[in-house]
Task: inverse folding
């Protein structure tokens, strides 16, 4: 997994692990904007995102000693962030999703590719962000983990506490929800094109 | 889709397409999908659409539409940790303060009041059931309804607080309170309002229900079957009041019959008539005339106190100079500069006097027991040992208040501290608020109709006054430790700064003019900052004019094939 547009500063990470406050400051300045944006996408309000960003970095600092240097720092960072945001959402029980892990209930219909293509083409980034804000906690969280922080299916399964095989279902349903929010077109969302 | 139903069954489902573009299918299944999409136009289009959707999602999420908030500009955990010991101390002091307040102030006062004329009744009973505002259980239903509504409102605010952080829970509380005031039904009884330069209730006039009177001169010669509440320069009550008299005026004389209680805050209060129940008086001069008769107890806070008439129960007195010359059926507890007990005095209970010199007791006075005198010490407050203990306790209590306010209104508290960091504007606004709001509240109050709003305004002003020092403390704490980010960090700074302000201010407070100026400075600065924060909160939001940062393409997640060749 790679961080969006960030090259990992290995030296600063090593110094921060050794307790260098300045190095930690460097890491914070480097990663805080990305983590804030992650939280902003995952959580309902800006204030939540601000609070969560601070809390995540406090956790990160406490857990820095546990970080396995052979693995990607960014991946570890996003994992902590995802767990924290999902904890917040779960605690609040905001718009609890009704999904079960019943893969059989997933619509396996073939949506109209042309309509879907048209919908995607017509929408701007801003419209997508607005639509994302309307999604349920799990749907939004899944999309953010996958398409913002590029987390693997295993990592998403771990963060959301679902089986790995169910991650695809969660993502597909999240896309359906997003399409509904974008267009309000139930046919597209449910894949009901004939 | 134009395919026939038979063909349609062969199409790939969306789940499979998604897993394919996400590279989550095993090799054999991926090859099947690849082979199928080479022949099937519809499935190829679907794959492309899903990839475009992935790309749109990634782009939308990566775009930096909001810059990093200023409060996140720096990581500040060190300060938070360093403040932890202060919290232990503050909580300990607060707990001590609460206990000390109860044992040192509340219990002795309760005992004193019980001893001083409210025989057998406790303080709660005195304040509620014997009070002038007790209208019987029927009216309690309304009170309970209002209390229930307020509780519901508070719960609602707590529930919505997260959603209303920007929109301000404060605004909701105020709006709710105002709505409650407007929506509250007027009392069912026939309450009468009279307003004018001279108000007279004539001898043959009888009013049933309560009467609110405002005017320069008031004269009541008739009968009122209810309470009389008067705001007037000069008041003469010669008639018969079946309820209580609550009077605010320069000169108040009660010559007639009052079946209830008398409560007064005035310059001069004279009772020459007959009051069946108790009297509570805050005045410069209080006189119970030789013909005057008080059936119950008397509590007086007066500069000059004179009693010639009779009192049916105990007396609790605070005065500069007091004279007792009438009959008292109960005990007397008095505190003041000097006390004279004349020859005509008859006191059936014990007399206890705390003063600067011995009471001057006439040998002819008939006392149940000699006066129990306690010398008041003249040494300054700050030379007394418990002065410093109490300063510490009050400091802890204020910090506790600050903590509660911080948690009730975290965003507003932050904004207030930010506003206070710029000294000039808050002090200027503080001067206006400090002097202007009480004057405005009084003007609103004396129009009678505006009493609730006036009292509410004055209450808010008092709260601002109490919290002003906390605001200044928070700014001082921020200067010392740098900006805080989390609530606890900011509360820690407020606590530290407040303690420093107290330490600096305590010696200044005893240097008359300097102390006064320091207090005014703190009050105006803090109140001004609160006012600036309130003003900004209710100011219309200005839409952000600056365009969002231009989007610079970032690396795409490797699991997607967006922008590359189609897998088919």
Result:
């Amino acid at each position: 997994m790679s961080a969006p547009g960030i090259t990992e500063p290995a030296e600063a990470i090593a110094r921060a692990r050794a307790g260098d406050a300045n190095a930690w400051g460097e890491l914070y300045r480097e990663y805080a904007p990305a983590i804030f944006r992650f939280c902003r996408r995952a959580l309902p309000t800006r204030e939540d995102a601000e609070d969560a960003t601070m809390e995540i970095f406090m956790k990160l600092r406490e857990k820095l000693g546990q970080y396995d240097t052979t693995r990607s720092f960014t991946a570890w960072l996003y994992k902590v962030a995802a767990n924290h945001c999902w904890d917040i959402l779960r605690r609040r029980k905001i718009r609890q999703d009704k999904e079960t892990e019943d893969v059989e209930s997933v619509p396996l219909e073939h949506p109209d590719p042309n309509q879907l293509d048209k919908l995607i083409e017509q929408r701007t980034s801003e419209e997508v962000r607005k639509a994302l804000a309307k999604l349920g906690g799990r749907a939004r969280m899944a999309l953010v983990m996958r398409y913002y922080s590029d987390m693997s299916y295993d990592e998403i399964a771990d963060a959301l506490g679902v089986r790995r095989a169910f991650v695809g279902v969660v993502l597909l349903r999240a896309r359906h929800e997003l399409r509904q929010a974008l267009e309000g077109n139930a046919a597209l969302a449910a894949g009901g094109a004939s | 889709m134009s395919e026939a139903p038979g063909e349609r069954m062969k199409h790939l489902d969306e789940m499979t397409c998604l897993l394919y573009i996400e590279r989550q299918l095993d090799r054999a299944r991926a090859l099947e999908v690849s082979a199928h999409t080479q022949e099937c136009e519809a499935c190829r289009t679907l794959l492309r659409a899903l990839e475009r959707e992935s790309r749109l999602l990634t782009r939308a999420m990566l775009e930096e539409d909001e810059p990093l908030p200023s409060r996140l500009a720096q990581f500040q955990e060190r300060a938070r940790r360093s403040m932890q010991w202060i919290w232990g101390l503050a909580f300990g002091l607060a707990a001590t303060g609460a206990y000390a307040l109860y044992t040192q102030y509340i219990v002795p006062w309760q005992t004193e009041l019980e001893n001083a004329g409210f025989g057998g009744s406790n303080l709660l009973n005195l304040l509620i059931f014997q009070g002038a505002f007790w209208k019987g259980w029927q009216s309690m239903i309304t009170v309970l309804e209002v209390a229930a509504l307020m509780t519901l409102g508070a719960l609602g605010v707590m529930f919505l607080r997260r959603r209303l952080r920007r929109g301000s829970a404060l605004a909701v509380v105020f709006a709710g309170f105002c709505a409650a005031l407007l929506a509250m039904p007027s009392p069912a009884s026939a309450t009468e309002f009279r307003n004018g330069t001279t108000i007279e209730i004539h001898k043959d006039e009888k009013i049933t229900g309560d009467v609110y009177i405002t005017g320069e001169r008031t004269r009541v010669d008739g009968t009122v079957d209810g309470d009389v509440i008067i705001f007037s320069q000069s008041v003469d009550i010669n008639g018969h009041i079946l309820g209580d008299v609550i009077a605010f005026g320069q000169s108040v004389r009660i010559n007639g019959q009052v079946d209830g209680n008398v409560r007064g805050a005035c310059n001069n209060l004279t009772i020459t008539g007959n009051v069946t129940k108790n009297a509570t008086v805050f005045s410069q001069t209080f006189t119970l005339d030789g013909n005057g008769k008080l059936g119950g107890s008397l509590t007086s806070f007066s500069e000059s106190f004179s009693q010639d008439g009779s009192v049916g129960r105990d007396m609790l007195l605070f005065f500069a100079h007091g004279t007792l010359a009438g009959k008292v059926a109960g005990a007397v507890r008095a505190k003041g500069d000097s006390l004279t007990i004349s020859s005509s005095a008859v006191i059936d209970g014990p007399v206890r006097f705390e003063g600067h010199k011995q009471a001057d007791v006439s040998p002819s006075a008939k006392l149940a027991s000699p006066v129990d005198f306690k010398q008041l010490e003249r040494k300054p407050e700050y030379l007394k040992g418990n002065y410093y203990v109490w300063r510490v306790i009050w400091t802890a209590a204020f910090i506790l208040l600050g903590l509660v306010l911080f948690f009730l209104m975290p965003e507003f508290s932050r904004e207030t501290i930010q506003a206070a960091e710029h000294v000039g504007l808050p002090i200027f606004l503080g001067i206006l608020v400090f002097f202007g709001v009480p004057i405005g509240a009084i003007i609103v109050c004396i129009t009678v109709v505006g009493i609730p709003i006036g009292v509410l305004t004055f209450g808010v002003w008092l709260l601002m006054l109490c919290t002003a020092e906390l605001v200044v403390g928070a700014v001082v704490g921020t200067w010392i430790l740098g900006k805080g980010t989390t609530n606890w960090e900011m509360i820690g700074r407020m606590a530290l700064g407040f303690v420093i302000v107290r330490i600096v201010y305590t010696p200044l407070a005893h240097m008359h003019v300097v102390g006064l100026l320091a207090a005014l400075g703190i009050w105006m600065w803090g109140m001004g900052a609160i006012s600036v924060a309130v003003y900004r909160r209710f100011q219309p939001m200005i839409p952000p004019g600056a365009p969002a940062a231009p989007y610079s393409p970032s690396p795409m997640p490797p699991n997607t094939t967006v922008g590359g060749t189609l897998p088919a």
Q: What stands out?
A: Chain A touches chain B through 61 residues (CB under 8 Å). Residues 12 and 20 of chain A are 9 Å apart (CA to CA). Residues 1-5, 94-104, 185-194 of chain A have pLDDT under 50 and may be disordered.
